[in-house]
Structure formats: structure tokens, C-alpha cells
Amino acid sequence: MSKTNHSGEATSRRHQRSHPVAADAVVAEEVDEAPIVQSPLRTDPRLAQLRHLSEIIGDAGAALSIPPERLAAGEALERLEVITRLTVEQLGHCTSARVQEWFAALADDLALDLRLDGLDPDLPSVAASLRAGGTPSTVLQGFQAEAQEAVETQGDAISVEARLSIGKTRAVALARDVVARRPGVAAPDMIAVFYTTGAWNALISLSAVPYLEQSGLVRANGRVFVLLCDAPGYLAGAALECLGAALPAAPDWLPMSPAAFRQFVAREEVSRRLLAEESGWPDAPRVLTTEMLHLVARIPGLETTLAHLAALRTELAAISLASVVRGGLPDGPVLHFAGVRPATCRLPAAAESQVSPAAGEALARLAEWATRRGTIDTLIIARECLSRELPSGRQVSLAEVAQAAVGAVEAAKANFTRFVRGQTDRYFAARQTAHDAVAEYGETVRKAVSDLTSDVVDNVYRTVGLLVAVVIAGLIQPDISPRLALLASILYSAYIAFVVYFLLRARDDHFTLEQAALTARLAGMSELTTAESKRIREPALSADAYYQRYMARARRIYFALLALGVLIAIILLIVVVARP
Fold this sequence. Notes:
Layout: H1 2-18, H2 20-32, H3 45-63, H4 68-73, E1 80-86, H5 88-91, H6 96-106, E2 110-117, E3 127-130, H7 136-154, E4 159-166, H8 169-180, E5 190-194, H9 197-203, H10 209-215, E6 224-228, E7 234-236, E8 240-244, H11 258-278, E9 296-299, H12 303-321, E10 324-326, E11 334-337, E12 343-346, H13 357-372, H14 376-389, E13 395-396, H15 398-476, H16 481-523, H17 530-536, H18 538-578
Parallel strand pairs: 5-6, 6-8, 12-13
Antiparallel strand pairs: 1-4, 2-3, 2-4, 7-8, 7-9, 10-11, 11-12
Helix pairs in contact: 1-2, 3-6, 3-8, 6-7, 12-13, 13-14, 13-15, 14-15, 15-16, 15-18, 16-18
């Protein structure tokens, strides 16, 4: 039956090659039924070559009795390598024509090593290495002849060990050429090619996250383009793209300008830094985030890959929203969700805990909303709302966590709105308090200046009164008036000196204390920014300048009065001393 199927597939491929227009028309008709696809573009021959490479590898696997599952399991990022064992009869399916076609398509990327196993130890070993540089068909024929001779002499105990190794140099070069021809799209930093979609799907799992990060298949500041040779479809995202080569036309590329991608990288860096600060889990992903796995199917065909990406995105979202994570990735981490009666969840989830697409998307949206701003406030609110939606005090499945996120999304947004409004009220209350403090300070300064100027006016009046009294005393008692005037001027000068060195200094100290109190009061209002505090304090600075200006004038007036009093005292002293 397998031979018949293989022959039928080969016949179908030959039929399509002989009638390319009809085959392309059939595929185009199927794609046009999907509403997400625009009008088909010109067929890309490079995609056809990549698809042909996948067919060649499938043919080699069939000839060597390697099932598709083993081919997928043996494929890594750099190459596909499988060691298998088959009978000499099965090796006969590897005809010279087929091998020649393999090497014509894969060239230096293909290496096939054959060795007979089960030979008599006394006989020399029989092995062959098929390479593109030699004559692989001739080498194969010689090995098959020796193998057939060994079977005839030693029986069916003889088997063939085959090592199939296929590199990706030619495939990656074709993929780079495909990517280079995209118009107006940010170029990817890494291009990976997988001959089998199953090999790529196997890497989309929680346990493979360290390998994804170390190999560069996910990058913190670069895009990754993955081309799958054996499938149709196109999944597009900001950080990751998956393209199937089995397309009749070039895909409708997702527009992603370098500027838009820089904004995405900056946003993801903020989320990554927040999660690193708030997670004490040593196995936490260092690069991969939930939003990096948000891909949209622009061409159908990669539904299984999209399901793997959605499942991993859901698991990462649950991890980021858990209060505490314990355990390692191989065994499955245990998530703890805080609350009065905490709930726990072990990943990967049990088989019966399948997550619905809507619930998984809600959990991912909640995680992205919680971390996108890079502030602890939204993350705390999201975790609290999710924990309150979970059944308390028992172990829950990932499906239950995702289902709880459906209601937690809106609850988190509502609570964040209330939180912001509360903070806004606190801000405006603090700002009004600051304005009141500055106004009160200005009133205190104005009162201090008023008292200061009033004292200056009173002391000027006293000076004038002193002079008038001296004159009147001189007219009434000419003999004793100089002595009385001398005594009065000395007392007056002492009074003015007291005002300058005690009263004015006391006023200055009081002003300094009031100024420091206002500064400390404004500094204690953490709701206000430095710029806001500076703007609110501008009236206080004007009041400070007003006070300093009149204090300086008052000092000059007092020093002038002190100088006048001392001068009068000196003159009167001379007069008193000069009299007999």
C-alpha cells in the first residue's frame, strides 16, 4: 500500500509539473475562498524551489524507509540528520535515478553514508559515502552489489545502517532571497529554514524556551523569519514570521516599518525589565514575552503551528501573572496565585485541561496589559483581579486560569481606572495644599515687611522728635542742654544699634525658618514632580525677593540713623568739653 501511495504522489507531482497552469489554478481557487487573502501575486520561483527541496527529502526518507515523524524528529536548526536501519531489499528502492535527483537538488548539503551491519567479523567491512563531489550513483550501485553478494553468502542477517545528513545552505540562501524582495518591510535579523513543519512545531513549547533564546530563534531586538518548506500558509507578527513555501504566489506581507518595530522593541524591553524585577524564578524567560508570540494568520495552512504558538503564549502569560513560580521547565513549573486562599497551577497542564482560544487570548491580553506600561501598579492589579476570579484553596488547571482571565481583564481595567482617579485626586489635593502653603507663606512675608517698614517709620519719627527736643531744650536751658542732648544722643545711638543687631537679626532668623518650613513641606509632597514644585514655588520666590529688598533698605536706613546719632553725640561731646 505504501508503494502505491508513493507512486501515486509521484505521478501527481509529475502531472502537475507537466500541467503547471492547471495545478496553479486549482491552488489559487482554494486560497481565494479565504477572506483574509488579497488578490494573488506573481508566483515566486524561490518558494517553488524550497517546496521542491522538501519533496526531495520526503522522497529520500521514503526510499530509506524513514517515516515523516522520524525526519521531523531528526531535524535541527542547522541540519537534518537521521540514522536508520533497513534491509538490503529496502535499499533497492534507492535507484540511481532517484539518488541522482537528490544530489541535483541538494548538492553539497546532502551526505548519505551506508554501512553493512551483521557481516562475519573475519570479512572486511562494507561501507560507502555518497557525496555531491563524486559519482554518488556509481558508488551506490557498487555498495548495493556488495550488499546483495553478502546476503547471498550470509543470509538475511545482513542489514544496512544508513546515515542521512542534509544541511541547509542552499535553502537558507533561497529564503534570504525571498525575504530580500519584500517591499517596505523591516528586514529580519535571523532567517531559519525547516524542511519539515513538525520540527519547528516541536520547538514551540515551554521546555524549549531556553533553546529558542540561546539559538536566536527569538530575539530581544530583532525580527526572526521562519520558512517551512513542506506546508502552505503565512503567520505574521511583529517579532516572528512563519511562511510556508507551498504557496502558489508570493504572500501579502505584513507591513512593518523599521520605526514601528523600534517602538515594539522599546515596549517589549519595558515589559521584560518589569518581569525580571518582579520575578524570583531562576528559569524565567530572559527574552521571550507573550506579545512576541502574537501572530495572525494572513494565509491559511499553518493552523497547527498557530495552535502551538497560542498554547505557549498562554503558558507564558500565566507565568507572568503568577505571584510566585517554583520548579523547572523540564518538570513543569508550579504557579502560585496570591489570595486569602491561594490557588496553584502546574504547567504543562493536564490533558483534560485544554484551553479554549478565547480564554487563552484573554489571559494573554491580561498579561500584556499588565506589563506593557512597565509599572508595578498594573501588574499588581492584574494579579489581584486574576487571583480573585480563581477557585481558592486548591490546584487549578491552566484552562481554569485562562477562563478566570476572561472576567479579570475588565475587572483589572476598571480597578486601574479607579486607582488612577484616586491618584489624580491625591495629586490635585497635594497641589492645592502646596498652593495654600505658598499663599500662606507669602502672607507671612508681607506682614513681616509691613511690620519692618512700620518700625522704620516710627524710628525716623523718633529721630526727628529727638532733634526737636534738643533744639527746644537749648532754647529753654542753654547751660544744661548740651549735656542733656549728649546723653539723649548716646541713648538713641544705643537704641538704634540694638535694633540693627538684635531686632533685625531676629526678623531675619524668623524669615529663614519660615522659608525652610515651606521647602520641607513642598519636598514632602511626593505626588508633585520637581518641575511642578518649582512652578508652584515661584510666588514664594517673589515674596523672598520682596522681603530681602525691604530688609536691605531698612538696614541702610538704620545704619544712616545710627551714623547720625553717633555724629551728633560726637559734636555735643566736643561742645561740652570746650565749655569752661
